[in-house]
Amino acid sequence: MSAGAESAFSRAMWSRLWFRRYGALIRAAWLVDLQYRADITLWLLWGIIEPAVALGIWWSIAGGVDGRVDGYSQLDFARYFFAVALANQLTQSWDAWSIDHWVADGEMNYRLARPVSPVHEAAADNIAYKARTGAVVLLIWLLIAAVWPMARMPIRPGHWLLAAVAMLLGAGIRFFNGFAIGLLAFWTTRATSLIELQMAVAVFLSGQIAPLDLLPSSISAIAHYLWFPYVIAFPVALLTGVGDSESMIVHGFVGQIVWLAVWWLLFRIVWQRGLKRYGAVGG
Question: How many distinct structural domains can be found in the chain?
């Protein structure tokens, strides 16, 4: 067998091994989630209620000012917040709380003894959870759209595909962001406080409570220098058809890739240094 053939065979075996590992991890995460059906239902409902309340507020405002608010009609708001519900559900991350719990309760010990890094367990948990809840949100959206035209998106399959890729990248950003902050539990007991503060800021700067165009110009300008708009506002713009220009699409994806790389690098740095500290204090 030639060197090239051996290399191709090794890559194929390596890919198959990781595919099987992730399959097992996702199945395990799926079964664990079944034990917390009530909790997951509540989280899912909150993920739907929050944008629904925001839609109700902006719908009322738009209805009282000639049907528009800075160019946004009631139809635009309906599409926007339905897309926010889906994007937020598919990109959200709770890993900071999980890691804080693992470190505080000593559960990190046996996870580190496994042949697969805890980051893969967390990633599989994200996939299992989002596959279930994302499908539910999408189904609810389709049922509402069937009877209420305002909830229907422009039929642009190309933009839908781009939106799916943007949501995947946005999920990666939030995953490594949450993981990196959660790993601060190696040094402090206040790691979850930091992520809660970030979540409060993200409600405004990611576009969850209102389109970024409607925020004061100074706040909107600050948002575009951070990662928040790239996880929700950008995928939503693609899904609703607002992001039509090629420059906007390119800028959005470049921003996502840059911030994904930044948070992955920060995760690696904090992970390596955190493990050294954890081992040094007898974790």
Answer: 1
Question: Above pLDDT 70, what percent of the chain?
Answer: 93
Nearest-angstrom CA–CA distance, 235 and 203: 15
Report the amino acid identity of residue 59: W
Which candidate, 192, 194, 219, 225, places its Cα nearest to that of 204? 219
Q: Answer yes or no: are the C-beta atoms of 76 and 84 closer than 8 Å.
A: no
pLDDT in tens, 186-210: 888 778 888 899 999 999 999 999 9
Distance, C-alpha 116 to centroid of its chain: 23
Domain residue limits at 70: 36-280
Residue 210 falls inside a structural domain: yes
Confidence bin at 9 (pLDDT 50/70/90): low
Query: Does 147 fall in a domain?
Result: yes
- Please provide the DSSP assignment of the chain as one string: --HHHHHHHHHHHHHHHHHHHHHHHHHHHHHHHHTTHHHHHHHHHHHHHHHHHHHHHHHHHHHTTTTEETTEEHHHHHHHHHHHHHHHHHH---HHHHHHHHHHTTTHHHHHTSSS-HHHHHHHHHHHHHHHHHHHHHHHHHHHHHH-GGGPPP--HHHHHHHHHHHHHHHHHHHHHHHHHHGGGGT-S-HHHHHHHHHHHHHHHTTSSS-GGGS-HHHHHHHTTSSHHHHTHHHHHHHHT---SHHHHHHHHHHHHHHHHHHHHHHHHHHHHHHHHHHHTT-
- Is the pLDDT confidence value at 55 over 50? yes
Residue 30 lies in a domain: no
Cα 225 to Cα 13: distance, rounded to the nearest angstrom: 42
Ramachandran area for residue 68 (φ above 0: left; ψ -120 to 50: alpha; else beta): beta
| Length, in residues, of the chain | 283
